[in-house]
Amino acid sequence: MRLTRRLLGDVSKTLKVLDFFSQYNPSPLSIKQFIDFGQNACERKSFLFLRKELPVRLANIMKEISLLPENLQHMPSVEMVQSWYVQSFADLVTFVKVEGDNEDDLNRFCETLDRVKDRHRSVVETMAQGVMEMRDSHGFDNTTENSIQYFLDRLYMSRIGIRMLINQHSLLFGKNIVSPSKHIGSIDPSCNVVGVLKDAYDNARFLCDQYYMDSPDLEINMNNGSTLPQVIEMCYVPSHLYHILFELFKNSMRAVMECHVDAENHPSIKATVCLGTEDVTIKISDAGGGIPRSRTDLLFQYLYSTAPRPDSSDVNVSAPLAGYGYGLPLSRLYARYFQGDLQLYSSEGYGSDAMVYLKALSSEANELLPVFNKTTTKFYKQGITMSDWTSSQSVYSNGNARGFSAQAVRSYRTGPCRQHCLTAGAALV
Fold first, then answer.
1. Distance between CA atoms of 129 and 81, rounded to whole angstroms?
2. Which listed residue (64, 167, 251, 266) is catalytic?
3. Is 43 known to be catalytic?
4. Is 251 one of the catalytic residues?
5. What is the radius of gyration, based on Cα positions, of the chain?
6. DSSP strand E in 289-365: where?
7. Which reaction does it catalyse (predicted)?
């Protein structure tokens, strides 16, 4: 909070303003609401909504930053990110009492949004640097690692939502309006899913050709559930979909190229796109060898990667297709942002399947946003609890039998399980 004091001066007043906005929950919008407003856009209405909604979203996530482990909060990169959020919050709260009934106020607000967006451009990379700084200097225990994973998911999801609001306002009312365009802000009412998929594949293939001097081909299958021409369109944000698919293609290409090093013809990547009544499903399949089941969950952990970590000091070496460990976790957040999901399934020794689920109906595609409340605070303070299930290791794996956990013993001594076990034991003898 030292940065907060330095930037905003009156600490008590600042904390009161932050506490005031953090007590409100963010107001999630659906894609349909974005579209309906954009078709009859009113700049003043957008201003009146954003002048309070943006501080609320910022305040909610800023309260969580103060709950992070002390060592992480004191990392230079984390302090820098915190200072950006504090400055953006200070910039936006100046508009809370502005009515926006003149053009100067509206123009000033647009300029402020542009500054906020530009200021937060490198939040992901800078926060990642801060986490790596702490890991290298202090190390992680399980509780700290879980808290950081929990926080990063919420920080980056909050960032996606804030940028979505800013982009919609800027694209609809900013100075650099592209006209004419079928897009409504950043949303394409008739987003061609296969078209975006092909763009993502082509760009990932370009990187693969540069790094491996070859790349696997792509096979596409479509099913729209009818006898109509095989065109699958949906109301969605193309840039979000591109981000997800580009990351999946990069991973699949790297796996195929490294699994079949000496092959003359590499196995193709197969993409299946299906349109159902509730979901649009995209399946990306590769024959890249797969991964052990024990490591599947690790793929969505920040800073975990199956690829070697790139050397950031060597600016002359072209970046490989992976290595920082943020691609899949961020891609899953983009999928979940409008109530979709990203899941991975692996057949070890053969390949992997990535399943992307997106809401087919724009009215059901509501923003998923983090909310700061007592449950959030409790998670950071308590961390993880002792497991009351056996582990995957043998009880004699270390030469000593392990006993019951204290948590399990308490539940048997005080709960109904004790009587059940006594009764069952009597029946056996």
1. 11
2. 251
3. no
4. yes
5. 25
6. 341-347, 351-359
7. L-seryl-[pyruvate dehydrogenase E1 alpha subunit] + ATP = O-phospho-L-seryl-[pyruvate dehydrogenase E1 alpha subunit] + ADP + H(+)
Residues 196 and 301 in one domain: yes
Query: Which CATH number does the domain housing residue 80 bear?
Result: 1.20.140.20
Q: Is the pLDDT of residue 15 over 70?
A: yes
Domains of the chain: total: 2
What size, in residues, is the chain?
A: 429
Question: Which is the catalytic residue, given 250, 266, 270, 359?
Answer: 250
Q: Are residues 138 and 6 in the same domain?
A: yes
* CB contact set of 320 (below 8 Å; sequence gap of 6+): 211, 254, 307, 308, 310
**374 has catalytic annotation:** no
Average pLDDT of the residues in 29-44:
96
Q: How far is the C-alpha of 375 from the C-alpha of 27, rounded, in Å?
A: 19
Residue 379 located in a structural domain = no
Q: How far apart are CA 57 and CA 62, in angstroms?
A: 9
Given 53, 64, 145, 247, the catalytic residue: 247
**Residue among 63, 169, 240, 243 flagged as catalytic:** 243
Average pLDDT over residues 280-302: 93
Cβ atoms of residues 252 and 260 within 8 Å: no
Q: At 273, give phi and psi (nearest 5°).
A: -120, 125
- pTM (2 d.p.): 0.86
Q: Which of 92, 33, 27 is nearest to 361 (CA)?
A: 33
Both 192 and 268 in one domain: the answer is yes
At 364, the amino acid letter reads: E
CATH of the domain at 278: 3.30.565.10
- 214 vs 119: CA distance, rounded Å: 38
Q: Under 8 Å CB-to-CB from 326, ≥6 apart: which residues?
A: 124, 128, 302, 303
Active site residue 250: yes
- For 108, the token pair is 């000033």
